[in-house]
């Protein structure tokens, strides 16, 4: 936005004073909508979406495609595959919005989104499954030099664990029917950071196989635990049905589907 956090806070206070209502409540992690604030936001968001649409009509960018993905999906799958996309579609201006929040097709102006979850995502969206949530335990080769193959569950349970925000280790160990006996653990906010920590030899990470396929192939990581189909949290690409005649958007969608199928 080009302004400081303090400036934003001041603008919020001025808006509340002007309206004579409290729009936000202050919580430990920042701000949260009050009921009045949420209602107001829902109304003005549509207005801003209309303004953005009108501006786009005045200054069209016909070859621009904005895709919303998580930072981990961007870092571990989309960006490594971009050279192939650029070679196939040099005239498309692909822009990536990497965020943990669920972006809005209307208010954020995105054309495509990769979401993790379970359908339905909305009647107005075309939905395509990209990757099943197949989790594997991975570690640096230095951790496995005395055991070149997958560890037995009991041994795996004793190794240091690297946790991400999904914190699926308890469910995975329950699937293996073993308790967590690791002496320590590392907790990180993103899966991509957990992968990097595993490569650095900090312990064992639990990740979707497709996110570490390249690392496994070149030997930066090795698989040390059996695969687990977590279920209900797969990866999908979403496109508004209204975009079916938008050639650049359809081209990006087609490329993502083909590239993901080739990785399986």
TrEMBL record:
Show where the HTH lysR-type domain sits: 1-34
What domain of life is recorded for the organism?
Bacteria
Indicate whether Ribonucleoprotein appears among the record's keywords: no
**GO function terms (MF aspect):** DNA binding; DNA-binding transcription factor activity
- InterPro entries per the record? LysR-type_TF_proteobact-type, LysR_HTH_N, LysR_subst-bd, WH-like_DNA-bd_sf, WH_DNA-bd_sf
Q: Which UniProt keywords apply?
A: DNA-binding, Transcription, Transcription regulation
Q: Which family does it belong to?
A: Belongs to the LysR transcriptional regulatory family.
Task: Please identify the protein, giving its name as recorded.
Answer: HTH-type transcriptional regulator, lysR family
Q: Which organism is it from?
A: Phaeobacter inhibens
């Amino acid at each position: 936005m080009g302004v400081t956090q303090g400036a934003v806070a001041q603008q919020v206070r001025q808006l509340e004073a002007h309206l004579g209502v409290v729009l936000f409540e202050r919580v430990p992690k920042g701000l949260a909508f009050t009921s009045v604030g949420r209602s107001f936001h829902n109304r003005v968001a549509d207005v801003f979406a209309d303004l953005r649409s009108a501006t786009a009509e005045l200054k069209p960018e016909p070859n621009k495609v904005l895709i919303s993905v998580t930072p981990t999906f961007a870092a571990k799958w989309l960006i490594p595959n971009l050279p192939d996309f650029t070679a196939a579609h040099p005239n498309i201006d692909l822009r990536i919005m990497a965020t943990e929040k669920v972006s809005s097709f209307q208010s954020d102006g995105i054309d495509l989104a990769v979401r993790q979850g379970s359908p339905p995502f909305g009647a107005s969206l075309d939905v395509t499954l990209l990757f099943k949530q197949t989790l594997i335990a991975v570690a640096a080769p230095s951790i496995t030099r005395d055991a070149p193959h997958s560890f037995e569950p009991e041994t795996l349970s004793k190794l240091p664990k690297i946790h991400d925000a999904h914190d699926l280790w308890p469910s995975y160990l329950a699937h293996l029917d073993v308790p967590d006996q690791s002496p320590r653990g590392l907790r990180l906010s993103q899966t991509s950071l957990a992968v990097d920590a595993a490569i650095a030899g900090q312990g064992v990470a639990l990740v979707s196989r497709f996110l570490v396929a390249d690392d496994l192939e070149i030997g930066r990581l090795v698989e040390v635990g059996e695969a687990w189909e977590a279920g209900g949290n797969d990866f999908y690409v979403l496109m508004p049905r209204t975009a079916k005649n938008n050639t650049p958007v359809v081209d990006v969608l087609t490329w993502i589907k083909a590239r993901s199928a080739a990785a399986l």
